[in-house]
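note to self — DONT lose this again. spent like an hour looking for the file last time. sequence + predicted structure for the chain T wanted, 493 res
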Amino acid sequence: MFAFCTGELLCYTHSPGVGEDKMRSLTTIPTIPLCKANFLNKNGTEELHLLQISNSQQPPHSLEFVEEMASPSASPKFGCPIDFAEPYWYQGFHSPYYHDGHRRFRDTVRAFVEQEVKPHVDEWLLTGYPKELHEKAYAAGIQGLIYPKEYGGTRPDDYDAFYELILADELARVGGGHVLGQMAINSMALPPILVAGSDYLKQKVVRDVVTGKKNICLAISEPQAGSDVANLTTTAVKDPSGKFYIVNGTKKWITGGMMGDFFTTAVRTGEQGFGGLSLLLLERSMPGLSVRKMPTQFDTTHSTTMLTLEDVKVPVSNLIGDENAAFGLIVVNFNHERFVIAAATCRLARLCYQEAIEYAIKRHTFGKPLVDHQLIRFKLAEMARQIESLHDMLERVAYQFKCGVADHKLGGQCALLKVQASKTFEFCAREASQIFGGSSIVREGQGKLVERMYREVRATSIPGGSEEILLDFTIRQAVAKARRHANSHAAKL
C-alpha cells in the first residue's frame, strides 16, 4: 500500500509489499501533523496507519482512493463508515442544522432499533409487532417526541423538525416491514385533535396515544376517492335527537386499522365538494364499525385495512373542529405526512445502496470483485448522487418547518419532496436488485432485504398522494400564482 498527502487530501493506492515500515522512510516535514487514515487492504479489511508525509511527495499514477481529512470541529463519526451509507453529518462533515441534542436523540433511536426491533423483524412479519412495543418506545423517550409535555409528551426544549427527521430516518433502518409504523400514523391522525379538538376530546385521546397505551388512525380514503378528497361519500347525518351522528360508508387503505383504538374520520355532513366535509372521532368499540386486514404487495408487521361503517352512532361531542370545516385540517395535515414519508423513504434508498455496495465488494464475477466492473460503480455512484440530493431537499423543507413557515406555503415543497423520495427509492431498489442479480428475487439469503424493499416501492409512491397527483398539484399552484402575477402586471399597464 502506498500513500501520499497533499493539503487536506490523503490518498492511497495498493502497492503489494509496501508496508508501514517503508512509509517511515518518506521525507517528513515537522509542520505537517500526523494523518490518521483507515485503509482497505486487498481482502477488504481495514488497516489503521499513522502517517507523516511530505507535501512534495508526488502522487502515484494508479490512484484508487481519496479521503478528505475531517476537521476537528466537524461532527463525530457515527454508524456505517461506507461513504453515503449514512447522512453526511454522521460521517464527519459539517452541518448548520444539528447539535448535541440531535446527536443524543439519534443515538437513542439507533440503540432502540438495534436492541428492541431488528432481532424480531422476521418473526413479526408473520405475527405483526406487539402493541406493547409502543410503551417501550415511550419509556425510551422516542414515542412522545413530537407531542406537548402537558399530554405526556417528551418533546425536548430545543425541539425542531430535525428531531422528527432523525426519528423517521432511524426507524426506517429496519428495511421495510413497517415496525412501529403506527407511530407515524399516530402523528398524522392526532394533530387535528390537538389543533381543533375540544378539551373533552383531548383528554379522552391524546395522553393515552402519546404514552403508547392506545393508537389512533387516519380514515380519509374511500374505494372511489383516494387523493380526490372532495368527493368523499361517507355520510354523517344527525339523528332526531340532534345528539348523535349516524355514520355510513366505507374507508379503504386505512393504515394501522388492526391496532387502532380511535379513528380520525372524514365524513360528509353537508353539500358536495370541499365545503361539506367534517372530521369525527370514531371509536373501535362503537357498534357497526368493523375492521378487516387487507393483503398487500409489501411485507408488513403493521396493517392496511378496510373499515366498514354501518349505522355507527357517534356522539356530537366527537366532532373535531367545526362542522363542514374539515378540509383545511385535512390538507394542512398532508404536508406533515409527506415529510415523514419522504424521510423514511430516503433511508430505504440508502439501505439499497449500502446493501448493494457491500455485496459488490465481496461478490466475484469473471475473476474479479463485482465492484471492479465500471458499470457497477456507475450504478452505485448514481444511487449515491440521488440519495444525497434527496437528503439535502429533506433538510431544506425541515428548515422551513423549523422557521415557522406557514403550512399553506409549503404544499408544493412537500409534494415535490415526496415525489423526489419515491422516485429516488424506486431507482435505488431497481439498481440494487440488478447488482444482487438472482439473489434479489428470492425471500431468503443475502438479497432478502433488497427483495423486501423492492416490493415496498409502491407503498411510498402512492400513499400520501400519488406521484402524478402531487406533481399536478404543485404546478397547478404555480400556474395560478403566475396568472395572478400576470393579471396584476397587466392591470398596471
